[in-house]
Amino acid sequence: MYGSLPENVIKQLKDAQKLVAREIERASGPAETIAELKLNQHKKLFAKIDAILDKASTGLRWLGETEVASLVEETLLRRYAELV
Questions:
Q1: 18 vs 24: CA distance, rounded Å
Q2: Residues near 2 by Cβ (< 8 Å), separated by ≥ 6?
Q3: What range defines the domain where residue 38 resides?
Q4: Is residue 2 assigned to a domain?
Q5: Is the pLDDT score of 1 beyond 70?
Q6: Is 76 a domain residue?
Q7: Which of 7, 11, 34, 52 has the fewest CB atoms within 10 Å of its CB?
Q8: Is 54 helix (H, G, I), strand (E, B) or coil?
Q9: Are the C-beta atoms of 24 and 34 separated by less than 8 Å?
Q10: How far, in Å, CA of 64 to CA of 57, rounded?
Q11: What angle in degrees, to the nearest 10, is found between the helix axes of 31-55 and 66-83?
């Protein structure tokens, strides 16, 4: 959410996302293997973002609200399930 993370952290996460995209792009092998790699990489990226947000002590903290966090989690899981 806008304002939840400092700009330098957002840049680090965008750089990490680019690396994940490159790794997936360079992957070769059966479609199932690539799909598994893609899912694992997205899970790692999600975990990294989640850990950073968990440590936030300033700014907007919408994910601290159970209802909001559940909605976001459900939406993200549904989206990534469609990508695989």
A1: 10
A2: 60
A3: 7-83
A4: no
A5: no
A6: yes
A7: 7
A8: helix
A9: yes
A10: 11
A11: 160
Domain count, the chain: 1
How many CA atoms are closer than 13 Å to the CA of 84, on its beta-carbon side? 17
- Residue 1 is assigned to a structural domain of this protein: no
SS3 3: coil
Reported as a single tens digit per residue, the pLDDT across 7-66 is 888 898 889 889 888 888 888 888 888 888 888 888 888 898 888 877 877 777 787 889
Q: d(Cα 83, Cα 6) in Å, to the nearest integer?
A: 28
Single-letter residue type at 45: L
Does any domain span residue 16?
yes
Q: How confident is the model at residue 4 (pLDDT cuts 50, 70, 90)?
A: low
3-state class of 30 per DSSP? coil
SS3 60: coil
